Amino acid sequence: MINIEDVDVREVEQELGLSFDGTRKNILKTFDDVQACPGSGKTTMVAAKLLIIAKKWQTKYQGVCVLTHTNVAKQEIIDRLNRNADGVKLLSYPHFIGTIQEFINKFLAISFLRSNGYCVKHIDDDMCNVKAWHLLSYGTQKFLENKRISSLQNLQYYFNNKELELRVPGFKAESPSNSYRELTEAKETLVNDGYYYYHEMYAFANQSIHDNPKILDAIRHRFPIVFIDEMQDTQKFQDELLNKIFLHDNVKYQRFGDPDQAIYSDDGEENQTYNKAILEKIENSHRFDNSIAQLAKQLSYNRINLTSNKTNRIVSPHTIFLVDDNSRHKVFTEFAHLCEQVVPMDCDNPIKTVGAVGKKKDDGLTICNYLDSFDKDNSKNKFKPKKLIHYFYEAKRIKVGHEAYHIVLNGIVRCGHMANGELVYSDGTKSPYSATSIRKYLKDSNCFIDFNILIKKLLDSSIDKIKWDDAVTRLINLADLQVSTAIQDFISFESNIRLNPTANDNGSNIVTININGRKIENEVATIHAVKGETHAATLVLETKHYEFDMGSLIKYILGENTTKPTGVRKPQFMKKLYVAFSRPEHLLCIAIDKSRFPTEHISKSNYAGWKICDLTT
Ligand SMILES: Nc1ncnc2c1ncn2[C@@H]1O[C@H](COP(=O)(O)OP(=O)(O)OP(=O)(O)O)[C@@H](O)[C@H]1O
Fold it and tell me: What distances in angstroms separate CA 274 from CA 23, 279, 360, 437, 568, one per listed residue?
């Protein structure tokens, strides 16, 4: 087994150009669970440790397993390993780096399904929902809608009492009704066609272990070292399964995270064995100086003493912008002015604006109330727009040939998935839609050039409704698809007009403003989308989810309440805003409605470490 010595740590410090203090050195040398504050270097330590292990790894058929919660976090680790010749060795067999979901699918659920004679083509909630809904009669759809069920998300298998149990939306028990029969038949079709929901893969994994407990020995033998990053977001059902697999003398199992940043457990129960464990926490951050640490600290749910060793700037620029309905949009320009003064020209980290709620709501307060054109699905991390035409707009925007082409191809692949289509090659073989299979199909059917010319024409000129309607029908025909109700809305025309009058928005949630000849590019995103990131500057917007997040926590934000919040909503708001407040290296700003800011502080220019700037006057 691998032993990590001081000399290994020194070597990796040199390679990375960093130094680790005593606590962090100890984390690198042992395999105990770690709870550490934002920017304390958790991902950096995971990457450093992997680099040390990569150099020493000898066994050919055993590997290191690194699990994350999100694809973004997985990619972050892969990128760090890719920069190093030893690190690259961990990117292939026998090692595994992936999300928890990918691990469960690959090593347990898929093999269970296949060995029981079922094919697995797509694991995707959206695809299952669309496909199953279209299999139902009008009567059953109406029956569900009357029960206020508009999605078949719960038409899944669950592992209960040592066996798989199918839950049927709208029914508490088996029923002789037509609707019940149709729903179970729709599920049967999904399974026979190889379509599964994400969550039910955990049920199949559990069943697999129940049927064949020896599989656990095989997995533990294959992965004697296992790391989990972002552990705080792991839900109870995932944690239980991971513990069943890895909590064993033969496995070194180390989990990294920060319970204060647990923001993924809204729909389910959070894990019990990590978030609730009382561990000594690392409280000093490498990301920001104390002027930001003191502000973010007010939102630490576990009331940690967040600090930094970095030297503070002389005058704190961090600002609370007071806004109202008429002045909300002004905040981008004001923030850009501060960025121009505070963010060094050579800073590589991005400037971002974040809010908890991204989806437009008529009676709510969301990011869209500040930036009308904001589209949550249009973020760099998760580009999943509502219509095919937006893939073309995005491709036009980024201009780089192969990247642009790839974006369009992804749009067509999504269209194929929505239509439940399969590509049929000239020899009769079939394949599900993917970027590779479409290209193969187009070459096989001699349509590759026509397809590429059509895409190029759309990318090279402006698109109006007539041009789009004509081109899109040809495009989807070439890709072996036909217009059907399943894709009608997705392929329909939509113009690319963005309505925000204040900002020079280029269509991808980016607000670019010129200040004194410097281009300040500000990407707008949800808080979820920026987890784990380091920003140059962050502007946090007040939003509403039943209650106003900043409004309900303003006394905490100003350090006037330091007790641990109770109830359901406040702890959730606090964790989300803590993630947001702890992103920036140089500048933290927030925008809150003036009506929810304590009147006694409105006229002050500074309070509680903040500058106060009233944009309503
Ligand atoms: N030992 C170190 N010395 C100096 N800088 C460091 C060190 N470790 C990490 N950093 C820097 O601190 C920043 C945050 O690091 P990292 O992303 O690893 O933190 P994290 O704990 O994973 O953050 P989060 O909790 O927000 O996900 C990065 O800019 C990184 O380069």
Answer: 19, 9, 35, 42, 20
C-alpha distances in angstroms, 217 versus 148, 214, 224, 593?
45, 5, 10, 57
Substitution candidate for ligand 1 out of 287, 306, 310, 535 with most atoms within 8 A of CB: 287
Q: Which atom of ligand 1 is nearest to the CA of 38?
A: 25
Taking the complete model, does pTM exceed 0.95, yes or no?
no
Share of the chain above pLDDT 90, in %: 70
Ligand 1 center to residue 285 CA distance, Å? 7
Q: Rounded mean pLDDT of the chain?
A: 91
**Contact between residue 228 and residue 255 where contact means Cβ atoms under 8 Å apart:** yes
Q: From start to end of 6-63, where are the E strands?
A: 34-35
Estimate the crossing angle of helix 401-418 against helix 448-460, to 10 degrees: 110
Report the distance separating Cα 258 and Cα 433, nearest Å: 39
CB neighbour class for 372 (10 Å; exposed up to 12, middle 13-18, buried from 19): middle
- Can you list the positions of beta strands (E) in 15-145? 34-35, 64-68, 96-99, 122-123
42 is in an annotated binding site: yes
41 is in an annotated binding site: yes
The interface pTM score, or ipTM, of the predicted complex is 0.99
